[in-house]
From TrEMBL:
UniProt catalytic activity: O-phospho-L-threonyl-[protein] + H2O = L-threonyl-[protein] + phosphate; O-phospho-L-seryl-[protein] + H2O = L-seryl-[protein] + phosphate
Bias (Low complexity) ranges: 122-137
A Pfam family matched in the record: PP2C
Cofactor(s) essential for the protein: Mg(2+); Mn(2+)
Species this chain originates from: Paspalum vaginatum
UniProt domain PPM-type phosphatase: residue ranges: 44-352
Name of the protein this chain belongs to: protein-serine/threonine phosphatase
Keyword hit for Metal-binding: yes
Length: 378
């Protein structure tokens, strides 16, 4: 499989190891060259991956524009682990978006919904009692979530099978997380597998900015995850030198010590409760929603949701938002764990509003200050 022939791929110039990739559909992205494609991508999202001090960069990030429909967007962050982790994360990055799209289209065709093969064959046109205002039927939020959940679940399963077929890539103790956001008009779907995370920055009517976590970190410390693993004879415990980090172990061997409960790959643990089924959620973008941050645990292990949102809002140019987050995380790693090696830190910031960044945040702060002042006056 791989990247479809109708797409153009542009790698971010700063990243020589190809951790960051932009993909533009011909119809959605125009006829510009690779450099122009990356430049256009930065208007929609900010992508950055910073290599840590633990070896090769095992993170990978992607932005796909024209994802199925002209204004459709897919963005994803993948955090590899194990000996082949850097290969697994990049393979998942390159295959998974189009697997999800393929399975979504198959569901639409199976349901009898009209799909135009001349377009990017992505449509929300399916039987429903509601419309989008143009007279075109659109599914209810519950129906949309169920369709996307099935498409993502099938695609993640297919991705796992694809990894098994890769010659020369031993994924018994190697794998990757995956957190993905798909935006189609006002609909936002998030699929998460592992301990990377998606956080939404949203602003109230009174101008207060808040961070809303859209995913659950799927770690062995989550009771439901641990119960599933133990039912499958896997073991969950922490090492003495890191008592706060629960890990997954084989029934009769003290390996591999996986720090997450779900992943792509890690086939020796698949029979012991580590699954490749993502958690999928849906949200209708609200007027106050500003942006979504997807990031690997190299960011979330040292920065809170609120800190990351604040860093993005304080970045003068939103195109540099993800770089600011990754660099802040690396700096925090050095300060908080001086004896430890800095982890890879990668992020994607998907912008949900077109307004000027500084003007939006400044107006919100002024609105919040006015609301706090007596009689509405400063």
């Amino acid at each position: 499989m791989g990247i479809c022939a109708s797409s153009k791929r542009a790698e971010q110039e700063q990243d020589a190891d190809e951790s960051v990739v932009y993909v533009m559909d011909d119809q959605g992205g125009g006829a510009g060259g690779a450099g122009e494609g990356a430049h256009a991508g930065r208007k929609v999202a900010s992508l950055f991956s910073q290599k840590g001090k633990k070896g090769p960069n095992q993170d990978a990030v992607i932005l796909c524009q024209g994802f199925g429909v002209e204004d459709g967007v897919f963005c994803g962050v993948f955090d590899g682990h194990g000996r082949c982790g850097q290969l697994v994360s990049k393979l998942a990055r390159d295959y998974l978006p189009f697997m999800i799209l393929s399975h979504r289209n198959a569901l639409l065709l199976g349901s009898g919904a009209a799909v135009d093969d001349d377009d990017a064959v992505f449509s929300d046109a399916s039987p429903s009692s509601s419309t989008d205002g143009s007279g075109v039927p659109s599914p209810s939020p519950a129906q949309l979530l169920e369709e996307w959940r099935e498409a993502c679940t099938n695609a993640f399963e297919a991705m796992d099978k694809e990894l098994k077929l890769q010659a020369g890539m031993d994924c018994n103790f190697s794998g990757t997380t995956a957190v993905c956001a798909i935006k189609q008009g006002k609909d936002l779907v998030v699929a998460n597998l592992g301990d990377s995370r998606a956080v939404l920055a949203t602003m109230s009517e009174t101008g207060y900015l808040s961070a809303v976590q859209l995913t659950t970190d799927q770690k062995p410390s989550v009771p439901q995850e641990a119960e599933r693993i133990k039912r499958c004879n896997g073991r969950v415990f922490a090492l003495k030198d890191e008592p706060s980090v629960l890990r997954v172990w084989l029934p009769d061997e003290d390996c591999p010590g996986l720090a997450m409960a779900r992943s792509l790959g890690d086939f020796r643990l698949k029979r012991h409760g580590v699954v490749s089924e993502p958690q999928v959620t849906h949200r209708r973008v609200a007027p106050g929603d500003l942006f979504i941050i997807l990031a690997t645990d190299g960011v979330w292990d040292v920065l809170s949701n609120e800190e990351v949102v604040s860093i993005v809002c304080a970045t003068p140019r939103k195109q540099h938002a993800s770089k600011a987050v990754a660099e802040a995380a690396a700096q925090r790693w050095r300060a908080k764990y001086p004896a430890s090696r800095v982890d890879d830190c990668s992020a994607v910031c998907l912008f949900l509003r077109d307004q000027d960044w500084g003007t939006t945040v400044a107006a919100a702060k002024a609105k919040a200050a006015a609301a706090r002042a007596p009689n509405g006056r400063l």
